[in-house]
Amino acid sequence: MRILAFESSCDETAVAVVEDGRRVLSSEIASQVEVHALYGGVVPEIASRAHIEAIAPLTERALAHAGCRREEIDAVAVTYAPGLIGALLVGVSFAKAFAFALDVPLVPVHHIRGHIAANYLAFPELEPPFLALAVSGGNTLIADVADYTRMKILGSTRDDAAGECFDKAARVLGLPYPGGKPMEDLASQSAGGVYALPLAHVDGAPLDMSFSGLKTAVVNLAHHADQTGEPLDRSALARDFTEAVCEMVVPRAMEAAKQTGRKVLCAAGGVAANRFVRERLMRECGGAGIKLYLPPLSLCGDNAAMIGAQGYYEYLAGHTAGMELNAYATREIE
Hints:
alpha/beta, 5-stranded mixed sheet, 10 helices, 10 strands, 18% strand
């Protein structure tokens, strides 16, 4: 079964053709990073307009690279939530038109479910049940994946996402947008242990997280140094911040595994590409006897192949939509 998939939840327009949820026939991405870097972050209106310009030619390229004619497409999958509403509407509208024109099923896919499904593309042997640690720019959560379409959130952030904090911390440290890789490179220049940063705990919800205090602490340290002329060890602060994020997410994932008895953990999302997060997960999972799946860096960021992978299983479960399908800025993974 060949699925044409669309992803436009933020600042990447992506189109892919995926076969049977596991084989990527083509995966095309049009990035808007250079445009948004001028503003230090994503400008929603600019993102929406860029999606409109890119999605049609990108679709033609994806079909051509897959060696697939339009009439060979069996279904259309699209990210419908969560994300920037204007950006999502571009993908949803285009996918609806394509599915209608081809008279094939339309499959709505939750963005974070797609990130988790990226592991199916990298690891053909992987099957539920397992735990998933999804850490991205817009979401941070731990989910129990009972099967391909039944998931339960065990813990999540109460405020900011880890990826957003990386971008904000990078900005006050004078690093370019997006901040993930520059922060990793800067953190690699120090052993850290210089700055005591806060680690939040949520009463009554040991698996939940909070990153707003951590973000504010980094901002305050940078602003204080700038206003007083005191030296700021940027590389040490980047390292201590990164270690704080690791301390926030990895032990909670290990505790979730202990509570559920799951012996398989999958990482997902853009922050899963961070070297320190990956190393901490490998170390902790190795010590706990948990099988860890880390998607390749190419599948950690936003892409349409992951939407096609999850779309296949949503289709098999009968989760299709009609032309009334709408986009949603927020939506629970469950």
